[in-house]
Amino acid sequence: MSALYDAEYARRYRGRDQELEGVGSYHALVRWVGEVCDRFDHPLDVLDLGCGTGRYFWGLRNVNTLTGLDASEPMLAEAAQPTRAGEISARQIALIKGDLATHQFGDGSFDLVYSIGVLAEHVALTRPLVERVARWLKPGGRFAFTTIDPQSPDMPMTVPRRVATAVLPLVPGAVGDALHHRLMVGGMYGDERWIRQQLRGLFAIETIDRFQSDVHLHGRCVGRKTA
Predict the structure, then answer these.
(1) SS (H, E, C) the chain
(2) CB-side exposure of 221: number of CA atoms within 13 Å?
(3) Is residue 99 part of a domain?
(4) Residue 86, domain extent
(5) Phi, psi for 115 (deg, rounded to 5)
């Protein structure tokens, strides 16, 4: 996957960072990340899962260490000089090249893991991934993330998909679960039902809602580690 995000892609992505300065939904996500930080009463160790160019670094508050993980070296090179660098308050920043699905951190390494525009979009939101995040979090740590909602108006809606979406509330049990799994494409989309299924037993959901960006309709969730 990292080959898809080459130097040219990283430059375009950085250009998009500049465009987003004038987009209200971007600033709403920045505020959201800061508000999640405010739920803690102590300095934080934070992981940005799929950090890209670091476009949300400046929204974090009361951060001791900030780790940015991304599979693309060119993206990390841009993240070394992130947007609004002068407003970043993290005391220490480390940028690490690694795959979300395979990279390992020690148990209890972070107070907060957040991921915006990555899960159920570029990388499937699955139970194994959620289990790994739970292990990385300290007791009471939080997992904050966005997904693409399958009802996002920019997503292709074929006739079979429309029919399946319409009948899903009427289909109970394992058959309904299997149909829902297909509609979520195994985690490449994430509606509220999917999010709750993946977090069940590991995180208590503090907030979950839909959020409209300038591009997609998203799911947006904050869960607190319980296991």
Answers:
(1) CHHHCCHHHHHHHHHHHHHHHHCHHHHHHHHHHHHHHCCCCCCEEEEEECCCCCCCHHHCCCEEEEEEEECCHHHHHHHCCCCCHHHCCCCEEEEEECCCCCCCCCCCCEEEEEECCCECCCECCCHHHHHHHHHHEEEEEEEEEEEECCCCCCCCCCHHHHHHHHHHHHCCHHHHHHHHHHHCHHHCCCCHHHHHHHHCCCEEEEEEEEEECCCCEEEEEEEEECC
(2) 28
(3) yes
(4) 2-152+188-225
(5) -155, 120
Answer yes or no: are the C-beta atoms of 30 and 55 closer than 8 Å: no
> What is the per-residue pLDDT across 112-142, written as a single tens digit (0 to 9) for each?
999 999 999 999 999 999 999 999 999 999 9
Query: Is 134 part of a structural domain of the chain?
Result: yes
pLDDT at 160: 81
* Total structural domains within the chain: 1
Q: Please check whether residue 210 lies inside any domain of the structure.
A: yes
Q: Which residues pair with 110 in a beta bridge?
A: 137
pLDDT tens profile 190-221: 999 999 999 999 999 999 999 999 989 999 99
Strand partners, 209: 220
Order of all β-strands in the sheet with 137-148: 92-97, 63-70, 44-49, 110-115, 137-148, 217-225, 203-212
Question: Is residue 141 a part of any domain in this protein?
Answer: yes
Q: Which residues of 71-102 are buried (b: 16+ CB within 10 A; e: fewer)?
A: bbebbbebbeebbeeeebebeebebeeeebee
What span, in angstroms and rounded, lies between the C-alpha atoms of 67 and 48?
6
Residue 193 identity: R
